[in-house]
Amino acid sequence: MLFIIYVILLALILLVVYVKSTYTICQSRRRLDGKTAIVTGGTAGMGLQIAKDFASRGARVIIACPFQKEGEQARKYIIKKTGNKEVVFKLLDLSSIASVRKFTNEILKEEERLNILINNAGVCMAKEYITEDGLSSTMQINYFGHFLLTLLLLPLLKTSSKLSDASRIVNVTSQAHFLGKIDFEKTNDIKHWTPFEIYANSKLYVTLFTREFAKKLNGFNVVVNNADPGYVATYITLPNNLTLRKILYPIMFASRAILKTPWQGAQTAIHVALDSNAEVVSGELFFNCKLSKATKRAYDEDLASKVWDESVKFVRLNPNEIVA
Question: Exposure winner among 1, 25, 95, 183, fewest CB in 10 A?
Answer without folding.
Answer: 1
